[in-house]
């Protein structure tokens, strides 16, 4: 599996990371162990979890696997911001120093490790000055409890503010950003990719298959299979299904993916993952497989390299629909300069 550097951390990471959000819920411990075994066997070296995943159970499962596989050289990533739900107190969320301290200590305990390689702020906290969190992260690095840190779900201005706040105080700087990114969700290209590039951050996309839409298992005007997350759609999924299903752009992208995948002897999700891997700034794509079969298929994306023409076709079909300002063609033209 191809390796790249994780920002300025000095860590080499595989092009595919293993996400563990389903561990302890849709994926039981035995199945989770099989997934981590297979991922390590395939040459992957990044396991990404969070304290909120299955209210801490995901970290516990990862921790038990690490204990059972002491020779596994994994880059371990976790996140803090939302907690495990063990308490509903007003100070049991956000990234104030008290809560981040408790969150990090809890993650270390559940994972059974002395340090976490990449500790990420899971989302922006509008109630706490970012300097409060950055000072804590800097201190945690000095104490050897984390080796590097990053962000997840930050916007462009939030990334830039945090980076320059760290520089202002001479604190350790972030090394990564974890945003949602896929052929169906490309809005991060408006500013987040540029902000990450300016700061030298690695980009670690989550949901690269757009919540399963790019898995190739859905068909026009047909109800999803019984084992799909959209089967018997819950109220919170109905609008998402209706929006994607009624959008001709969705099916144009899937048609192109099907044809391109066939040309490579690959599957639709493998082609979709290959597109994400090839995008500017992307370092490691986080797989969110629920089953062993899905993981096995996703791992096959490591051998798929799309041609320039194929990437261009998919780029054009999936281009975000942007208004004129500040991200549409007239605004982009004004911000360009030819010599």
What does the secondary structure layout of this molecule look like, with pairings?
Blueprint: E1 3-5, E2 12-14, E3 16-19, H1 29-41, E4 46-48, H2 57-68, E5 75-80, H3 97-111, E6 118-121, H4 130-142, E7 149-152, H5 156-169, E8 176-178, H6 192-199, E9 202-203, H7 235-245, H8 248-263, H9 268-277, E10 285-287, H10 292-299, H11 308-318, H12 329-334
Parallel strand pairs: 3-4, 3-10, 4-5, 5-6, 6-7, 7-8, 8-9
Antiparallel strand pairs: 1-2
Helix pairs in contact: 1-10, 2-3, 4-5, 5-6, 8-9, 8-11
Note the total helix count.
12
Runs with pLDDT <50, length 5+?
Answer: none
CATH architecture: Alpha-Beta Barrel
The count of DSSP E runs of length 2 or more, i.e. the number of strands, is: 10
CATH class division:
Alpha Beta
- For the residues shown, what is the average pLDDT? 94
Helix content: 40-55%
Spatial order of strands in the largest sheet: 9-8-7-6-5-4-3-10
Alpha carbon gap, first and last residue:
40 Å
Query: Which fold name fills CATH's third level, the topology?
Result: TIM Barrel
The structural class is alpha/beta
Computed CA radius of gyration, to the nearest angstrom = 20 Å
- In oligomeric terms, what are we looking at? single chain
CATH fourth-tier homologous superfamily: NADP-dependent oxidoreductase domain
Number of domains: 1
- Which series of helices and strands comes N to C? EEEHEHEHEHEHEHEHHHEHHH
Tell me what portion of residues adopts beta-strand conformation: 5-15%
* Large-scale geometry: globular
What profile does the largest beta sheet have?
A: 8 strands, parallel
């Amino acid at each position: 599996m191809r390796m790249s550097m994780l920002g300025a951390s000095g860590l080499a990471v595989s092009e595919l990371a293993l996400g563990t959000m389903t561990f302890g819920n849709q994926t039981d411990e035995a199945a989770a162990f099989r997934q981590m075994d297979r991922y390590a066997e395939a040459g992957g070296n990044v396991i990404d979890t969070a304290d909120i995943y299955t209210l801490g159970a995901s970290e516990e499962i990862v921790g038990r696997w690490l204990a059972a596989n002491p020779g596994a050289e994994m880059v371990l990533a976790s996140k803090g911001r939302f907690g495990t739900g063990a308490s509903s107190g007003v100070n049991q969320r956000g990234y104030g120093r008290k809560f981040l301290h408790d969150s990090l200590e809890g993650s270390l305990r559940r994972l059974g490790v002395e340090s976490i390689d990449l500790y990420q702020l899971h989302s922006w906290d509008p109630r706490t000055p970012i300097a409060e969190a950055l000072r804590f992260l800097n201190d945690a690095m000095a104490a050897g409890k984390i080796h590097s840190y990053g962000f997840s779900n930050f916007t462009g201005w939030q990334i830039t503010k945090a980076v320059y706040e760290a520089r202002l105080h001479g604190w350790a700087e972030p090394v990564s950003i974890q945003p949602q990114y896929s052929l169906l969700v490309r809005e991060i290209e408006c500013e987040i990719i540029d902000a990450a590039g300016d700061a030298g951050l690695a980009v670690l996309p989550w949901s690269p298959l757009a919540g399963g839409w790019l898995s190739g298992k859905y068909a026009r005007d047909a109800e999803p299979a019984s084992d799909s997350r959209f089967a018997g759609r819950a109220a919170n999924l109905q609008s998402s299904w209706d929006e994607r299903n009624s959008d001709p752009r969705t099916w144009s992208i899937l048609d192109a993916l099907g044809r391109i995948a066939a040309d490579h002897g690959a599957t639709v999700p493998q082609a979709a993952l290959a597109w994400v891997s090839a995008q500017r700034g992307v370092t490691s794509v986080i797989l969110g497989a629920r089953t062993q079969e899905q993981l096995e298929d996703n791992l096959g994306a490591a051998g798929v390299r799309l041609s320039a023409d194929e990437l261009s076709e998919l780029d054009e079909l999936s281009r975000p629909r942007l208004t004129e300002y500040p991200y549409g063609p007239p605004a982009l033209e004004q911000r360009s300069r030819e010599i």
